[in-house]
Design a protein that fits this description.
This protein is α+β, with helices and mostly antiparallel strands. Helix content is 27%, strand content 26%. It has 7 helices and 18 strands. The two termini are 30 Å apart. The relative contact order is 0.13.
């Protein structure tokens, strides 16, 4: 029996959702991406561990994704399996800290959306996560890339992370070992490890003030970012001593198009799917922006977006 067929049969046996030839365009915020051989949706850590172990035994290449909000996928059919944790199955656990009465821990499933976690924190009168309210990713993805906005980053609140290794064995790593830096964590060097749960530490606060901050930051996003078009957020990392969006704007690149991909006229740091863009369109646009900025300013822009199936 062919190995992908065996993995599909195993998933059916344990009750894990397993979709065949699933288009990745459905699972990325860019709305771009061809079909993958299998798309797996484990309900929890135990199910994920079983699937990872089986895939490893069958020598099937396995890639982990969250909400696909920082991902560009090839238009070609990919002979691999993609695993994406479900976000609606495991509820967060709140733990009070007797030794620090003004603080509390939240442990949540990595597939949970950041926005949902922010709402959970607000409901329990906890502050420190407001910066993440408008970030359209999962908690696991946010830890993976040390997501941040408006002066806050995940590294400031993460206490520990649970993950599965390439054989499906469970481990725990604390914040001192996570090697957090700008848009980077230990997991960037260990892509064969799947983040399954995250524990964060927040402080008690005033619900009205927390809600007001969340709404203020969301309002700033809506006013400044092209949220009405598919994109992967900020396309480039912030170079030392400058801002990517300012450099791109300075070079007069707003509105630059390649096929259906375009540099947003609203925010130069966003490359958007303006009109049925392909992966190749976005790739070529990224290269053109990088070349023009390098030539005109001397700055090298590093792409922040993860790529799948692209050489």
């Amino acid at each position: 029996m062919e190995r992908f067929t065996k993995l599909k049969a195993f998933c059916d046996e344990i009750g894990c959702v397993c979709l065949e030839h699933e288009p990745m365009a459905v699972h990325t915020s860019f709305r771009i991406g061809g079909p993958v051989r299998l798309f797996l949706r484990p309900r929890d850590e135990r199910e994920a561990s079983q699937v990872i172990h089986q895939a490893s035994s069958l020598q099937i290449p396995l890639v982990y994704v969250g909400k696909g909000s920082n991902l560009l996928v090839s238009d070609d059919a990919l002979e691999l399996a993609v695993l994406c944790l479900r976000e609606d199955h495991v509820q967060p656990v709140l733990t009070q800290m007797p030794e620090e009465p003004s603080k509390a821990l939240i442990t949540c499933f990595a597939g949970m959306g950041l926005r949902a976690l922010c709402t959970f924190a607000l409901h329990h009168r906890l502050t420190g996560l407001e910066f993440a309210y408008g970030i359209p990713g999962s908690v696991g993805g946010a830890v993976y890339m040390n997501a941040g906005a408006y002066g806050g980053e995940m590294r400031e609140i993460v206490r520990s992370v649970e993950y599965l290794d390439a054989q499906g064995e469970l481990h725990t790593i604390d914040t001192t070992e996570l090697n957090f830096s700008y848009r980077h964590s230990w997991f960037c060097e260990h892509p064969d490890c799947l983040i399954t749960a995250v524990t964060i530490c927040l402080s008690t606060g005033e619900p009205q003030a927390i809600h007001a901050k969340m709404e203020e930051l969301m309002g700033r996003r809506v006013s400044k970012q092209p949220l009405d078009y598919p994109s992967a957020g900020s396309t480039f990392k912030r170079p030392q001593g400058a801002y990517a969006s300012a450099l791109i704007d300075q070079c007069g690149l707003k509105g630059l198009r390649v096929g259906g991909a375009m540099v947003s006229e609203k925010h130069a740091g966003f490359l958007i799917n303006y009109d049925h863009a392909t992966c190749a369109d976005v790739q070529q646009l990224i290269q053109q922006v990088q070349q023009r900025v390098q030539q005109q300013t001397g700055f090298s822009l590093e792409c922040e977006v993860r790529r799948l199936g692209i050489g």
